[in-house]
Automatic annotation (TrEMBL), chain A:
GO cellular component, one term: ATP-binding cassette (ABC) transporter complex
Transmembrane residue ranges: 46-69, 146-171, 196-216, 236-257
A GO term, aspect molecular function: phospholipid transporter activity
Name by which UniProt lists this protein: ABC transporter permease
Keyword Transmembrane helix: yes
Automatic annotation (TrEMBL), chain B:
Species the sequence originates in: Actinokineospora fastidiosa
Stored Gene3D superfamilies: P-loop containing nucleotide triphosphate hydrolases (3.40.50.300)
Domain ABC transporter as annotated: residue spans: 5-241
Name this protein carries in UniProt: ABC transporter ATP-binding protein
Keyword line: ATP-binding, Nucleotide-binding, Transport
Record has Hydrolase as a keyword: no
Molecular function via GO: ATP binding; ATP hydrolysis activity
Superkingdom as given in the UniProt entry: Bacteria
Amino acid sequence: MTARTARPMPGAGALRETGRLFALGLDVAVNIFKRPFQFREFIQQCWFIASVTILPTALVAIPFGAIVALQLGTLIVQLGAQSFTGAASVLAIIQQAAPLVTALLVAGAGGSAICADIGSRTIREEIDAMEVLGVSPIQRLIVPRVLAAMLVAVLLNGLVSVVGVMGGYFFNVVLQGGTPGAYLASFSALAQLPDLWISELKALIFGFIAGVVAAYRGLNPKGGPKGVGDAVNQSVVITFLLLFFVNFVLTAVYLQVVPAKGS
Amino acid sequence: MGAEVVIEGLTKSFGRQAIWRDVSLTLPPGEVSVMLGPSGTGKSVFLKSMIGLLKPDRGSCLINGVDIVTCSEQQLYETRKLFGVLFQDGALFGSMNLFDNVAFPLREHTRKSEAEIKRIVLEKLEMTGLQGAEKKLPGEISGGMRKRAGLARALVLDPQIILCDEPDSGLDPVRTAYLSQLLIDLNAQIDATILIVTHNINLARTVPDNLGMLFRKELVMFGPREVLLTSDEPVVEQFLNGRRLGPIGMSEEKDAATMAAEQAHAAAGHSDGSPEEDLRGIVPQIEPTPGLPERQAVRRRKDRVMRILHELPPAAQEGIIASLTPEEQRRYGVRAGAHAAGRPRVAVPSPTPRTGFSGSLADTDVANLPRTDWGSR
Ligand SMILES: Nc1ncnc2c1ncn2[C@@H]1O[C@H](COP(=O)(O)OP(=O)(O)O)[C@@H](O)[C@H]1O
Ligand SMILES: [Mg+2]
């Protein structure tokens, strides 16, 4: 009444949310090392996230590999460097397509389920009850889920890479009339092992982001069951935004730090 | 003996919405207190602020000398182990059956064997009338059962402070009566400090030692039950009698026009929903089930209340004195109707009022009451 409330600074809300998101990420990182580790919950969550993501990922990966192969194939023929089609499409798939496809599916299928689960627990006051019983919900519930998202992301990333490369090979060799020998030779001429590492590292980081954002929105739904629906929605959108941004940063750093092969 | 809870100047708002301001009260150790208040006055928010789940804007909440509002995360976790909390909807873990729910705190915080855990859990489930339901999931039982299971879980670590958020809502009157008895029995057995938040009038009249009321973003009053039960405060009178006539409206703020219209209706003979008789007045408190130990809190409270008797309003004084046995009246040096002569006489406690029970607090601490001004009302 008497105290004049200052007009909130525009954008202050968004900043605060971002800060709290980071705080949660930090909390999760710290709690990963707290014993006892929730092994059962972790295994269950891995199984759950894998079961909702494997099939869609494989189904998305095949056409994705094909698109990359087709697009690059045409472009490279125009440039007159047919012999490098294999290398180009493999690099594109492993470094960019695979981590992103993985992350989108982990966020869209796994993250949304995590967010809905945590959100409904929050509105049923289960999280509060757990805290009052002296058990940290972050250590108990969030850490296993985030770790599960990370592990599944890494494994799926491998799956997408393999399926995508095979799809690309199929399209290039069978449909575009490329030669198998050139495909494989160019591959080993341009690609190098760090390309695979950065791909897996990206998947790991994207899995972490998807898990933390889902948990954050789930722990802070606004007002009742309707709020949980909104939270799920937002968690997927926020994750996508963050993923593309982080991907950009990682790619830029990688291209600067790791010298391209043959240059 | 239960822990003492001292709350000073607690204020909470969500953004611009003020919930309540400057709430100060002391829950005397080992006593049962009830906080009344219409729906939406922030009773649940109050409980959550007491255990550090919500952060109040200002004020302090001291439990065993630890300020919940400002203490470290570590201290907070330690202090919370003193609490048993029953949430409004039970807050059971949906993925565990009732047995595992009740066993959860034991498995987390003790090194008891599984056989011992089973014994304790089954005992608590039986206490709350849930024997035979231990294999059920929370989604498969009624709201009342969920609530009772939540209570069983809150009791399993023998807490020093028990907080109950509307233990009666969703229960029928008979179960509510059993629950009231259960809470009193518990208090007799483990001497825990209990705070119950409710809008059940019957429970408020018969269970607590201390009674308070939250309304319009403020603590209207808090003190010995006799004070509120004999109060002339319009809010209290309306609430206790469940009438439409009075300051409490359907929405939080009732405007003068609505009040005038209702007054006119009532004058024209339209019932305002209240019972025939006035439900205020002091009714006997529930006693522990025969065979259980006496409640230590009753004696402590009697000494405490007699020491502050002169500060209480006359109606409350009269009620308190009338509830004493003649022998006690002699011991405390008071007579029925003694206050009637203008300024109430100061009740002098007998020279050694505290013999015969063990209290660890200094007199001044026990007699500490929140800053209230009911003496002047
Ligand atoms: N987490 C929250 N965020 C914003 N407002 C809240 C929150 N929790 C409760 N409120 C508001 O606080 C008020 C009091 O709620 P509550 O404590 O549940 O009332 P009661 O338990 O007395 O019925 C309500 O108006 C509610 O909208
Ligand atoms: Mg409530």
